């Protein structure tokens, strides 16, 4: 399962949220009530860096911006015992789905990296090792 698999391309409107950012005073990605004093809005330069990385990797390899608050960014996940326990079953399910669709017999080994996007739920970008014969 490759993050650069061209079979699934992002929707053409994937950057609509970011294109509108700053163009309309009524459309604000930051809710002032939720923003803490130590968080700041993402800069235009950071946003361009993020967009380039997102497009190049389909969200699987994006930079982290500590102290930045911007809704809907895909951000790296710290892989500690809790997150591994939570995400490993999702990796197994993804591998099972891939095996079913592609008629392969790969087995999940280890979660290497995870990114997440929160927007009415969580969307995970999982990079993991696997073994098996196709």
Structure report:
There is one protein chain. The chain is of the alpha+beta class. It folds into 2 domains: 58 residues, no CATH class; 51 residues, no CATH class. The protein is built from 3 helices and 3 strands, in the order ααβαββ. The chain has a 3-stranded antiparallel beta sheet. β2 and β3 form a beta hairpin. The longest helix is centred in the C-terminal third of the chain and has 22 residues. It is elongated and about 50 Å long. It starts with 15 loop residues before the first helix and ends with a strand. The relative contact order is 0.15. The N terminus is likely disordered.
Fill in the keyword field for this structure:
3 helices, elongated, 19% strand, 134 residues, 3-stranded antiparallel beta sheet, alpha+beta
Secondary structure tally: strands: 3
Question: What is the chain-wise order of helices and strands?
Answer: HHEHEE
Largest sheet: 3 strands, antiparallel
Distance between the termini: 12 Å
The helix tally amounts to: 3
Strand order of the largest sheet: 1-2-3
Instruction: Please indicate the count of domains.
Output: 2
Mean pLDDT: 79
Please state the CA-atom Rg, rounded to the nearest Å: 17 Å
> Beta-sheet strand percentage?
15-25%
Q: What oligomeric state best describes the polypeptide chains here?
A: single chain
List segments where confidence is low: pLDDT < 50 over at least 5 consecutive residues: 1-32
What percent of the residues sit in helical stretches (DSSP H or I)?
A: 25-40%
Alpha-beta content class:
alpha+beta
What's the shape?
elongated
Biased composition (Acidic residues): 20-42
Biased composition (Low complexity): 1-14
Region (Disordered): 1-42
């Amino acid at each position: 399962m490759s993050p650069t698999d061209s079979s699934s391309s992002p929707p053409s409107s994937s950057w609509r949220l970011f294109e509108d950012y700053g163009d309309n005073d009524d459309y604000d990605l930051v809710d002032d009530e939720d923003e803490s004093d130590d968080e700041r809005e993402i800069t235009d330069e950071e946003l361009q860096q993020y967009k380039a990385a997102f497009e190049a990797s389909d969200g699987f390899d994006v930079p982290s911006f500590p102290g930045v608050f911007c809704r809907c960014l895909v951000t790296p996940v710290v892989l500690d015992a809790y997150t591994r326990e939570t995400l490993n079953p999702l990796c197994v399910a993804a591998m099972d789905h891939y095996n079913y669709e592609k008629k392969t017999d790969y087995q999940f080994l280890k979660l290497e990296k995870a990114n997440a996007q929160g927007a009415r739920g969580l969307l995970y970008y999982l990079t993991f090792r696997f073994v098996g014969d196709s």
